Amino acid sequence: MVDVTPKYKYTNSEHPRRPNKAFYFIINDKRVRVCKTFFKNTLAVSERMIYTVQQKMNEGFTMNELRGKHSNHKKLNPELLEDIRKHIDMIPKIESHYVRASTSKQYIGGDKTIKDLYNDFVVQQTETNRDIGNYIAYYKIFTNEFNLGFFEPKKDQCDLCISYNNSNDGLKQDLEEKYLKHLEEKTLCRSEKQTDRQNITKDTKVVIYDLEAVLQCPRGNSSAFYYKSKLNSYNFTLTELLASGEKKAYENVHCYFWTEVDAKRGANEIGSCIWEYLKNVCANDAEPKNIIFYSDNCCGQNKNKYIATLYMYAVHYLNIASITHKFLIRGHTQNEADSVHSLIEKEIKKNLN
Question: Which of 249, 232, 231 is nearest to 240 (CA)?
């Protein structure tokens, strides 16, 4: 929009008229003048918008965003805000199974959504004749003041593969060498496990071990169960693989189960389970055994000096010829032990229904 300057102008000094505007579109770097009606209909704007823009141009500045900046906001009762925080605090929390070493984020059971939690809060407040507030207030406090997420067990996902697949062509070119090497390592790792399965004999065992995601009890679909303090339980599974060509992938499964009352889930606990397993293996057969372990790369549980020292101790004092530990490639640690954990989860859901 450009001001139109007439050759002759008769003005009223007290109430001068606003200058007229000429309207243009830029087409192929050339200005094409159009009428005002054509201008408005093409841009789908109103007369009011044109007037406002013209006024701001004449004043020489554009005002800042003022929406929501007024001082007439409705303030919530501090007691209501405190009730919301107490209600969120009473939800039992779960630590992350996969990245607890690198994050402080806590998780709650995925049986409910934030909307469901707010509905439970409304019921609680109604029973005590207290203010229920609104969902937006509950949602903002939940997301802004609490570092919480909803726990949903799922398979490991590879960060590198996801980054490569979601990148544009330029970033893919930078990541390509690292990505191709990563795929090669994944293929070699799985090939190595397949080779070990082909070499299984009476005196050689290939064992995959893994710690299942936290199991909580009590569990149920009612709100009474959801807000009860829960007991965290841990299940450590050692799965003995069968030789290639067998109908089943594995035969013997050893599960070691304990609760947070008994112990934690660090290297000491994992090492105790492995030690019990090795003693059972040696007790059943007098022949020296060669053990090949596979696991993920969790440093706090599997990849540390305590587990290595345990292996040395077991080879020295038990009837074991050798222990070899091989680590699966990060992000591609899916293994036969996962199917055991899946069966346990399915059985839990079946009994809950």
Answer: 249
- In this structure, the number of other CB atoms found within 10 A of the CB of residue 70 comes to 7
Domain formed by 195-352, architecture: 2-Layer Sandwich (3.30)
Helix (H) or strand (E) segment spanning residue 203: none
Q: What is the pTM of this model?
A: 0.64
Q: What is the DSSP string of 232-281?
A: EEEEEEEEEEPPTT-SSSEEEEEEEEEETTT--SSHHHHHHHHHHHHHHH
Cα 188 to Cα 44, 219, 278, 297, distances in angstroms: 61, 41, 28, 16
Strands 106-109 and 94-95: antiparallel
Reduce the DSSP state of residue 141 to 3 states and report it: helix
Question: Which is nearest to 74 in space by CA: 121, 9, 136, 26?
Answer: 136
* CA–CA dist 87, 130 (Å, integer): 13
**Ramachandran quadrant class, 96 (left: phi over 0; alpha: psi -120 to 50; beta: rest):** beta
Cα(1)–Cα(23) distance, integer angstroms: 5
Could you tell me the two tokens for 132? 């229920």
Could you report the per-residue pLDDT of 29-68, keeping only the tens digit for each? 999 999 999 999 999 999 998 888 877 776 666 667 777 6
Map out the domains of the chain as residue ranges.
Answer: 2-59, 78-151, 195-352
